[in-house]
C-alpha cells in the first residue's frame, strides 16, 4: 500500500491556495492509488517548538546521558523522521510569508534534518538519505517566482534535495492579492496537477 505524506503549513486554513492545490493533487493521487494511505502533517494546526539551545543540547547529548526532558525533545524529531521515512511520496504546501516559507515549516525542516539519519557528510559534500519524490504547492500575494525576492521555492528545493527528496514538480499560484491575475495563475497551476499525480 502506497503512502503519501502531506505537509501543510498555511495559516489560512481551507482558504489557503497552496492547500487547495495540494487537495487537488491528493484527490488525483488517491484516484490512481485506490488503496493508498494519506498521512497529514499540518504544522500550522500543530506547530512544533522552535529550535533552541535546549534542542541542540538534547541532540548532542549521548542517548544514555539524556535527561527525561532531553529524551522528549529528541522524540519529536524521531517521530517526524520515522513518518517521512515511511512515506513513498511527499507533498509540501506552503504560502510565501515575507519572501520565505512560514516559520512553522522551517521548524519542521529543522527537526527532520539529522546527520546520519536523513543526510550524511561525505568527502565530496553532504548526501541526502531519504530517497523520495515530492510535489510542492506554493502561493504568494504577488508574482515573485524566479526573481531575487523569491526565497520560497529555491529554499524548498535546496532543503528537500539536501535530505534526499527529489522535487518532481512545483505548482505556483502567484498574484493571489491581485485579483484576476491571481485567479488565472491559480487555475493554471490547478490544471497542471491533473497529469502529475
What would a concise description of this structure say?
The chain has 6 helices and 7 strands. The chain has 197 residues and is α/β, with parallel strands linked by helices.
SSE layout:
Elements lengths: L2 E6 L8 H16 L4 E6 L10 H8 L7 H18 L3 E7 L7 H10 L6 E4 L2 E4 L3 E8 L13 H10 L2 E9 L6 H14 L4
Parallel strand pairs: 1-2, 1-3, 3-6, 6-7
Antiparallel strand pairs: 4-5
Q: What can you tell me about this protein's structure?
A:
By secondary structure, the protein is of the alpha/beta class. The chain has helices at residues 17-32, 53-60, 68-85, 103-112, 153-162, 180-193, and strands spanning 3-8, 37-42, 89-95, 119-122, 125-128, 132-139, 165-173. It has a 5-stranded parallel β-sheet with strand order 2-1-3-6-7, sandwiched between helices. Strands 4-5 form a two-stranded antiparallel ribbon. Helix 1 (17-32) links the parallel strand 1 and strand 2 (37-42). The radius of gyration is 17 Å and the shape is globular. The chain starts with a strand and ends with a helix. The mean pLDDT is 94.
Number of strands: 7
The first-to-last residue Cα distance is 16 Å
Class computed from helices, strands and strand pairing: alpha/beta
Q: Looking at the structure, what is the overall shape?
A: globular
Catalytic activity: 2 a quinone + NADH + H(+) = 2 a 1,4-benzosemiquinone + NAD(+); N,N-dimethyl-1,4-phenylenediamine + anthranilate + 2 NAD(+) = 2-(4-dimethylaminophenyl)diazenylbenzoate + 2 NADH + 2 H(+)
Protein name: FMN dependent NADH:quinone oxidoreductase
EC number: 1.6.5.-, 1.7.1.17
Domain Flavodoxin-like fold: 3-194
Amino acid at each position: 500500500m502506497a503512502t503519501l505524506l502531506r505537509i501543510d503549513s498555511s495559516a489560512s486554513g481551507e482558504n489557503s491556495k497552496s492547500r487547495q492545490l495540494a487537495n487537488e493533487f491528493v484527490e488525483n493521487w488517491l484516484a490512481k492509488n485506490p488503496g493508498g494511505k494519506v498521512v497529514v502533517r499540518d504544522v500550522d494546526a500543530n506547530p512544533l517548538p522552535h529550535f533552541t539551545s535546549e534542542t541542540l543540547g538534547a541532540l548532542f547529548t549521548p542517548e544514555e546521558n539524556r535527561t527525561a526532558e532531553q529524551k522528549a525533545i529528541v522524540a519529536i524529531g524521531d517521530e517526524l523522521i520515522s513518518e517521512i521515512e515511511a512515506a513513498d511520496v511527499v507533498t509540501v504546501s506552503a504560502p510565501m510569508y515575507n519572501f520565505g516559507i512560514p516559520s512553522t515549516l522551517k521548524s519542521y525542516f529543522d527537526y527532520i534534518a539529522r546527520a546520519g539519519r536523513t543526510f550524511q557528510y561525505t568527502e565530496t559534500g553532504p548526501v541526502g538519505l531519504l530517497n523520495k519524490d515530492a510535489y510542492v504547492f506554493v502561493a504568494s500575494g504577488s508574482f515573485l517566482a524566479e526573481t531575487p525576492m523569491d526565497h520560497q521555492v529555491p529554499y524548498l528545493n535546496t532543503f528537500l534535495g539536501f535530505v534526499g527528496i527529489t522535487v518532481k514538480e512545483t505548482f505556483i499560484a502567484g498574484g493571489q492579492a491581485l485579483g484576476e491575475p491571481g485567479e488565472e495563475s491559480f487555475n493554471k497551476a490547478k490544471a497542471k496537477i491533473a497529469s502529475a499525480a
